[in-house]
Specification:
Blueprint (H helix, E strand, L loop, with lengths): L18 E2 L25 H27 L4 H33 L3 E7 L2 E9 L14 H15 L1
Antiparallel strand pairs: 1-3, 2-3
Helix pairs in contact: 1-2
Length: 160
């Protein structure tokens, strides 16, 4: 369960205009902005990435356990470094797989408006409008069409 899941009761639509609980998939808040032909919800590799992240966590736990056991036995720094290197290679390969999944979906979905699971600090049950937005976006001062439209509505409302 997400730490922040209490922000969004499961039976209510969030009031934020740029996230949805997808209670009515036929009438998502930004329906008029959806990219033509996009599926709702929009698959973006989330499940594949999460499986790889779990695998990476398991490897990290095994590495830490092995290092702890070796330290207790008085292992040399070189022995510990060998373990770190061995497990580090496995972790590096998983990170490469994660990046491949992200790159695959990014090339398909960059700039498209859909309904992507993972929003509002919640990984499940809350959806965002773009593949690469918010905490997933490295671009500064970029909000995306859904948020930009919501901001303009507020500005227009307050300035009239």
């Amino acid at each position: 369960k997400d730490t922040f899941s209490y922000f969004f009761p499961p039976d209510r639509e969030p009031h934020e205009p740029n996230i949805t609980a997808l209670l009515d998939p036929e009438n998502v808040k930004w329906k008029h902005l959806l990219s033509p032909g996009i599926k709702i919800p929009t698959k973006w590799g989330k499940e594949e990435i999460e499986e790889l992240q779990i695998e990476r966590q398991d490897i990290s736990r095994k590495m830490n356990s092995e290092i702890s056991k070796l330290k207790n036995k008085g292992a040399s720094e070189q022995e510990l470094e060998n373990i770190r290197r061995k497990f580090g290679e496995k972790i590096k390969k998983i990170n490469e797989k994660i990046n491949q999944v992200r790159d695959k979906y990014r090339s398909e979905l960059e700039g498209k408006i859909g309904v992507f699971e993972g929003a509002g600090y919640t990984s499940k049950g809350i959806y965002r409008s773009e593949f690469n937005i918010g905490m997933f976006n490295g671009k500064k001062n970029s909000y995306g069409p859904v948020s930009e439209e919501a901001i303009l509505k507020i500005i227009n409302h307050l300035s009239n």
